[in-house]
Specification:
alpha+beta, Immunoglobulin-like, 7-stranded mixed beta sheet, 14 strands, disordered C terminus
Length: 305
């Protein structure tokens, strides 16, 4: 009886604690990419739940069927050979489950890496999202404005984020719009998202990058295209310009509130798009110049000899 009430108390406690938890943001999608990821998560949870129920069912069955019984002391159970069908099921079913989940995962990976479905004919809004310790900088090159620690985006329009970092590797993640992607300081990665529903969402750096990592978050506001255009006009009329000196100050480690500027740091501090392993790629004219110099140097050495 005591064991029964102890189990009941444990179940009641777990139910009470879980009822006070906030809903999982990844299971509350507000965009096509996030919907795909949420469906995959639910599918995986369903498959795992089915496996757990089958295993526990077989366990209970075995415990009941082969429980201890009153047999003579000299009783010997019959020798039973292995069953081919049981062995085939025990090996084959896990292989089929893993193969199926692998197929779904690979298919979803191609879908979320491409432009959101249903938005192929629309012009994307390009935003350069860069991180520093411990802030997020959002540059709108077409609108010629920049924000810090907050992001405004229009709904029903594809979003193309160009991700990079001014410091350690970080991870750009808006759970209700899509999955995370790394931002690095040696090249740019591209993330495609879209917001179907207007509202306010939370974004963050999901990759540990130092002591200020926990507060490395930003607010996302999705609105109609008309409201977005009005916001852009308002910023251009009221915000101060972003200078190189101001941007250098922003890159210093620390936490800041939400800031807004006209202009972007892309003009005086562009990302390393044309770099490879820290070395700038040479143009055709530069390569021709280097080739001519090398030939001239070789010719002078030959004449000296």
């Amino acid at each position: 009886m005591k064991l029964k009430w102890a189990l009941f108390a444990i179940i009641l406690t777990i139910a009470t604690v879980l009822s006070g938890c906030e809903p999982l943001l990844v299971l509350d999608p507000k965009g096509p990419q996030a919907e795909r990821l949420a469906s995959d998560i639910l599918l995986s949870m369903g498959v795992m739940l089915f496996i757990v129920l089958v295993v526990f069912g077989l366990l209970i069955y075995m415990l009941v069927k082969y429980r201890a019984s009153k047999q003579p002391d000299d009783y010997e159970p019959p020798h039973i050979h292995g069953n081919v069908w049981v062995e085939a099921i025990c090996v084959g079913v896990p292989i089929l489950i893993v193969a199926y989940l692998s197929f779904v995962s690979v298919q979803s990976n191609y879908i979320v890496e491409a432009q959101p479905q249903g938005y192929e004919d629309k012009e994307p809004l390009v935003v350069y999202a860069s991180s520093s310790n411990w802030k997020w900088h959002f540059s709108y090159p077409e609108e010629n404005i920049e924000t810090v620690n907050y992001l405004y985006v229009p709904t029903d329009r594809p979003l193309e984020f160009k991700l990079y970092s001014h410091g350690p590797i970080t991870s750009f993640w808006i759970p209700q719009l899509g999955g995370q992607k790394y931002a690095m300081n040696d090249h740019i990665t591209t993330l495609h998202l879209a917001a179907d529903t207007a509202g306010e969402y939370i974004g963050r750096n999901s990759n540990f990058s130092g002591e200020g990592f926990a507060e490395n978050t930003f607010n996302v506001t999705a609105m109609s295209q008309d409201e977005f255009d009005e916001w852009v006009d308002e910023v251009k009329e009221t915000a101060d310009p972003l200078t190189k000196e101001e941007f250098t100050t922003l890159l210093e480690p620390g936490h800041l509130g939400q800031l807004t500027y006209t202009g972007t740091h892309l003009d005086f501090s562009p990302p390393n798009e044309g770099h490879h392993h820290g070395e700038e790629e040479k143009t055709d004219s530069e390569e021709e110049t280097d080739s001519d110099s090398h030939e001239q140097h070789s010719e002078e050495e030959h004449m000296n000899h």
